[in-house]
Write a structure and sequence with these properties.
This protein is an alpha/beta fold. The chain has a single domain (6-294), classed as TIM Barrel (Alpha-Beta Barrel), CATH 3.20.20.140. Helices cover 37% and strands 14% of the residues. The chain contains nine helices and ten strands. It has helices at residues 45-51, 72-86, 103-111, 141-152, 166-175, 195-209, 230-244, 264-275, 280-294, and strands spanning 6-11, 30-31, 34-35, 57-63, 91-94, 116-119, 156-159, 180-183, 214-218, 249-251. The strands form two sheets. An eight-stranded parallel sheet has the order 1-4-5-6-7-8-9-10. Helix 6 (195-209) links the parallel strand 8 (180-183) and strand 9 (214-218). Helix 5 (166-175) packs parallel to helix 6 (195-209) and helix 6 packs parallel to helix 7 (230-244). The chain is globular, with a radius of gyration of 18 Å. It starts with 5 loop residues before the first strand and ends in a 5-residue tail after the last helix.
Length: 299
């Protein structure tokens, strides 16, 4: 049986021998999603292809991987060189501090690279799945000025918006209609056992889905609970597809981060199983076509 193709909309590569990733420093034994020792080793294209064997992954979107924040162009150059040599990844979402005085200049510099498609700039730090949302840059005029510069050129913004800031994030997407927002990691769903929290998350998705310029990644479904529970993840999958529809959902692995919780083949197998309730055309959209369209990956 030939599997439907996948365009993986969220992958990270890192080379710990040659580059600096502060969050993976051995001096930082744990991060927002628990201990990082299991993934604290170089992870490159061949490692990903080994994890994704027989999954028919045809396109890869690389998302900034916590590279040295003082040298965001360094990661862009490195990823572009990798793509030039190996033919993948097919797009890069860079980290740019949008509140920085030179944010506009950095956007222009990144735009000179063929792989550049947009920016991910965290609105909160630390384990924001547990945050009350009081510390966020979403209302910072300087940060919003940087976002405006991104909007002027029609680039994508990968939006990290957990439940605590979902209402503000929904307003943001309306304030910047010229930006294609992509809500990462399903908006960090809490456990459905927490009925109040799960309902708030679902309501937040509905609010963000009202803006036609917002799409969502079917990924990171275990990041809130910090463990892989397929029955819980299936409930979250059903809720996010209900909110956004088949035209705005994109499958993603979040590898190798999600390797902390489950093998990539297990994740993709479950995604394919859950999406099998839809028509083949709808499955193709969520597995492949939506990512190619939103991130401009070509045919």
């Amino acid at each position: 049986m030939i599997l439907l193709p996948i365009a993986d909309s969220h992958v990270h590569f890192w080379d710990l021998e040659h580059h600096r990733y502060p969050w993976l420093d051995p001096a930082e034994p744990s991060g927002p999603f628990g201990k990082t020792a299991a993934i604290r080793k170089t992870y490159l294209l061949d490692d990903y292809l080994a994890d994704a064997v027989h999954q028919n992954v045809l396109r890869i979107v690389h998302v900034e991987a916590g590279w040295d924040p003082g040298d965001c162009l360094g990661e862009m150059r490195w990823i572009q060189a990798l793509a030039d040599e190996r033919g993948a990844p097919h797009a890069h979402i860079a980290h740019i501090d949008l509140a920085a005085k030179n944010a506009r200049e950095l956007i222009w510099q990144h735009a000179s690279f063929p792989l550049f498609r947009g920016v991910r700039d965290r609105l909160q730090e630390g384990d924001f799945t547990q945050s009350d949302g009081s510390k966020t840059r979403i209302d910072d005029p300087a940060w919003r000025a940087g976002l405006r510069a991104l909007e002027e050129h029609g680039f994508v913004f990968d939006l990290q918006a957990p439940v605590a800031i979902a209402e503000k994030a929904a307003a943001l997407t309306h304030d910047f209609p010229g930006i294609r927002f992509v809500l990462t990691h399903a908006g960090y769903p809490p456990s459905p056992v927490d009925k109040i929290g799960f309902a708030k998350w679902r309501d937040g998705l509905s609010a963000m889905a009202e803006a036609p310029n917002v799409a969502i990644k079917l990924s990171g479904l275990m990041l809130g609970e910090k463990r892989w529970q397929p029955d819980h993840a299936q409930l979250a999958t059903k809720a996010l597809i209900t909110a956004f529809g088949c035209d705005r959902v994109m499958v993603a692995s979040n590898f190798p981060v999600d390797r902390l919780f489950a093998p990539l083949i297990d994740l993709f197998s479950h995604y394919r199983c859950w999406l099998s309730a839809f028509t083949v055309s709808e499955q193709r959209k969520m597995l492949y076509e939506n990512t190619c369209r939103i991130y401009d990956l070509g045919e």
